[in-house]
């Protein structure tokens, strides 16, 4: 903030000539110190107004012209502190002052000066954009940035870049809570500059995220006429899937392998790729897992559906899932991801998630949403007798997935979900293998039994899940595993979901009949959602 220095000291030591000499010779600190030493405020004010004012303003302009921000700021502080700035006097001075402070990264002082500039009758509305830029890019105060950008566009209506920035800010800060605002700003940017692919891409993306089906199709079709990007085609597939436009999704989801980031990750994707149209009754089909553990569990339900299409089906999975998948998929050769592709004898191959497209799934009635994985009852009984309490509602929790895939938007804060342990007659068990430190810091940690040391692979995890009464999980592999096992489960979701989940508030039985979904109304606001979860758990505990 701009300084407010009180004049103090001994006026007898004050010499105006000396002060002038200091400033004329660019010794600003010495000149300022002399002013600070004076005690006769009126005398100093009078002399400064008459003699120093023109000099200081000239020096200020010189330093600004030379981009000597350090000296310009020192002069500005002298002007502000000793020249009664409320009297001086026009918007341009304060705008120049703000620019100087901004150039020297004195952002609060820059904002102060810009706001002084807008107090004058005639000022440049671009000052609102300048203030917005500081809050957005320099101070990272996004809500304040929105405030000033909106002041700007209320007066200046022909700048597409600011509308585009506003769309991004509303998406970043408010997610789906202000979908109409996001779309409106991106649409305005696009109308003002229709040739700008970036603006059209943003509009297409936000239409998909906010489930505006007609706009989604309209803007993506327009975008793909102008863009050759694999990323854009994959995004269209994702948001078509999310909006249950499955025919479009089947066409474009394959482009996930041609995204810039995946170009080297799947180098042999087109080698003997099966598209579902060719007969493979006399051939060996290799199904390749892709992405994370949860994806493998979720989409493995489709593997048995192609068993009779080929002479032989090989399913390659992550080693951690090998024993569980192998014990459940009769008639299919399950192999761990330890064999190189050149050492596998196959005729055609297909990535696991592509089965959804090859099978031309178009509605939820075609999906097995019931139990499709199981573990031996004897192993469950043994685990339960050794590790699980009797006489309580035994609840397993998993609040965090693989951070590489999930990021922070799918993960529930450990300190919030741990409060399950405070519910009477409820025993909480942690199934969290990674990111356990967060749970260890919670006040309830001593009440929670950690099962993670017993979970060597996902067969062990499935046994643990089956031994419990209820699973409470965020969007991660445990949620998918519990659903595939038909275990009673409460799934907790942010207001934004991964494209595969659709809007879980409307599609409760789509993937898993045994899962009840709870979703945030506002992005990252878990409080109300968890209150609903806790209330349901409390009811179950009382029914024991």
Description:
It is a single chain. The protein is an alpha/beta fold. It has four domains: 11-88, no CATH class; 160-262, Alpha Horseshoe (Serine Threonine Protein Phosphatase 5, Tetratricopeptide repeat); 280-362, Rossmann fold; 377-542, Glycogen Phosphorylase B (Rossmann fold). 48% of the residues lie in helices and 10% in strands. The protein has 24 helices and ten strands. The chain has helices at 16-24, 28-37, 41-65, 69-82, 91-103, 107-117, 126-138, 142-153, 160-174, 179-192, 197-209, 213-226, 230-242, 246-252, 293-299, 319-326, 355-358, 377-387, 403-406, 414-417, 437-440, 458-467, 477-484, 527-542; strands spanning 280-288, 310-317, 333-336, 348-351, 393-398, 426-430, 449-450, 470-474, 489-493, 515-519. Strands 7-6-5-8-9-10 form a six-stranded parallel beta sheet, with helices on both faces. The protein has a four-stranded parallel beta sheet with strand order 3-2-1-4. Strand 6 (426-430), helix 21 (437-440) and strand 7 form a beta-alpha-beta unit. It is elongated, with a radius of gyration of 33 Å. Mean pLDDT is 87; it is low at 1-12.
């Amino acid at each position: 903030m701009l300084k407010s220095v009180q004049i103090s000291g001994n006026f007898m030591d004050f010499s105006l000539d000396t002060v002038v000499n200091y400033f004329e010779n660019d010794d600003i600190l010495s000149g300022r110190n002399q002013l600070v030493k004076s005690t006769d405020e009126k005398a100093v004010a009078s002399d400064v107004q008459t003699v120093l004012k023109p000099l200081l303003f000239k020096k200020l302009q010189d330093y600004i012209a030379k981009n000597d921000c350090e000296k310009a700021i020192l002069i500005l502080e002298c002007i502000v502190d000793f020249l009664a700035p409320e009297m001086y006097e026009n918007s341009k001075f304060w705008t120049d002052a703000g620019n100087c402070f901004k150039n020297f990264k004195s952002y609060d002082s820059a904002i102060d000066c810009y706001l002084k500039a807008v107090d004058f009758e005639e000022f440049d509305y671009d000052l609102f954009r300048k203030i917005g830029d500081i809050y957005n890019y320099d101070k990272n105060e996004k809500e304040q940035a929105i405030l000033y950008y909106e002041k700007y566009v209320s007066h200046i209506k022909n700048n597409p870049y600011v509308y585009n920035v506003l769309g991004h800010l509303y998406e970043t800060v408010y997610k789906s809570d202000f979908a109409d605002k996001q779309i409106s700003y991106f649409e305005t940017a696009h109308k003002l500059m229709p040739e700008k692919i970036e603006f059209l891409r943003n509009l297409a993306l936000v239409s998909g995220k906010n489930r505006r089906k007609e706009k989604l199709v309209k803007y993506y079709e327009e975008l793909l006429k102008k863009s050759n990007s694999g990323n854009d085609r994959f995004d269209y597939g994702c948001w078509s899937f999310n909006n249950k436009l499955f025919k479009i999704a089947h066409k474009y989801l394959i482009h996930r392998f041609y995204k810039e980031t995946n170009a080297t990750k799947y180098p042999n994707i087109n080698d003997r790729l099966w598209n579902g149209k060719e007969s493979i009754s006399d051939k060996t089909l290799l199904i390749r897992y892709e992405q994370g553990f949860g994806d493998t569990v979720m989409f493995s339900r489709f593997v048995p559906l192609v068993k009779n299409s080929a002479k032989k089906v090989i399913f390659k999975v992550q080693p951690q899932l090998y024993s569980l998948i192998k014990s459940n998929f009769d008639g299919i050769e399950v192999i761990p991801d330890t064999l190189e592709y050149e050492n596998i004898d196959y005729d055609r191959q297909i990535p696991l998630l592509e089965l959804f497209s090859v099978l031309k799934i178009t509605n939820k009635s075609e999906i097995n949403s019931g139990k499709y994985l199981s573990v031996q009852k004897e192993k469950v009984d043994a685990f339960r007798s050794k590790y699980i309490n009797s006489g309580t509602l035994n609840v397993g929790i998993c609040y965090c997935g693989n951070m590489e895939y999930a990021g922070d938007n799918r993960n529930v804060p450990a300190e919030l979900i741990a409060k399950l342990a405070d519910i009477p007659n409820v025993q909480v068990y942690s199934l969290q293998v990674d990111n356990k430190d967060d749970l260890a810091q919670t006040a309830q940690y001593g009440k929670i039994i950690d099962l993670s040391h017993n979970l060597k692979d996902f067969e062990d995890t499935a046994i643990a899940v089956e031994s419990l009464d209820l699973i409470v999980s965020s969007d991660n592999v445990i949620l998918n595993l519990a659903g595939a096992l038909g275990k009673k489960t409460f799934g907790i979701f942010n207001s934004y979901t991964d494209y595969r989940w659709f809007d879980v508030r409307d599609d409760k039985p789509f993937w898993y009949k045994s899962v009840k979904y709870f979703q945030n109304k506002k992005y990252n606001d878990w409080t109300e959602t968890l209150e609903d979860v806790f209330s349901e758990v409390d009811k179950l505990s009382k029914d024991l």
